[in-house]
Amino acid sequence: MTRLFGIKNCDTMKRAFAWLDDHSVSYNYHDYKKSGVSGEQLRNWAAQVGWEALLNKRGTTWRKLAPAQQVDPGEEKALALMAQNPSLIKRPVLEHEKSLLVGFAPERYAALFGK
């Protein structure tokens, strides 16, 4: 099963949706801004790719955090921030079988799905 996590209106998400649709890859979509994401899910992802790969420091949500929250977050603090503010999670997050991809790169998707 393939699961795609993200925020519907994100431009990067739109490119991922288009790629998956164009290559006839079926997937379930989870909008983590509307439905949230559990701390357990975040810990599982962090165990696979590292919390640093999940934390989006380039967006407006990060810039709006208090300076004290931005300083050296560390894993537990970063995971708590992402659970409270799902917009801090890089997108998309793609789960396919035992693989996890964070961010969208057509060549990585092609390699994963053999397309």
Molecular structure report:
- The protein has 115 residues and is α+β, with helices and mostly antiparallel strands.
- Helices cover 48% and strands 15% of the residues.
- The chain has 7 helices and 4 strands, in the order E-H-E-H-H-H-H-H-E-E-H.
- Strands 2-1-3-4 form a 4-stranded mixed sheet, with helices on both faces.
- Helix 1 links the parallel strand 1 (2-6) and strand 2.
- It is globular.
- The two termini are 17 Å apart.
- The mean pLDDT is 94.
Task: Please describe the structure with a list of short key phrases separated by commas or semicolons.
single chain; 115 residues; four-stranded mixed beta sheet
Helix/strand/pairing class, anyone? alpha+beta
Topology order in helix (H) and strand (E) letters: EHEHHHHHEEH
Instruction: Going across the biggest sheet, name each strand in turn.
Output: 2-1-3-4
Give the termini separation.
17 Å
Oligomeric state of shown chains: single chain
Overall body shape: globular
Largest sheet: 4 strands, mixed
Low-pLDDT runs of 5+ residues are: none
Mean model confidence by pLDDT: 94
Beta-strand proportion: 5-15%
Number of strands: 4
- Please estimate the helix content: 40-55%
Please outline the helices and strands.
Elements: E1 2-6, H1 11-22, E2 28-31, H2 39-49, H3 51-54, H4 60-64, H5 67-70, H6 74-84, E3 93-96, E4 99-102, H7 106-113
Parallel strand pairs: 1-2
Antiparallel strand pairs: 1-3, 3-4
Helix pairs in contact: 2-6
Condensed summary:
This protein is α+β, with helices and mostly antiparallel strands. Helices cover 48% and strands 15% of the residues. It has a four-stranded mixed sheet with strand order 2-1-3-4, with helices on both faces.
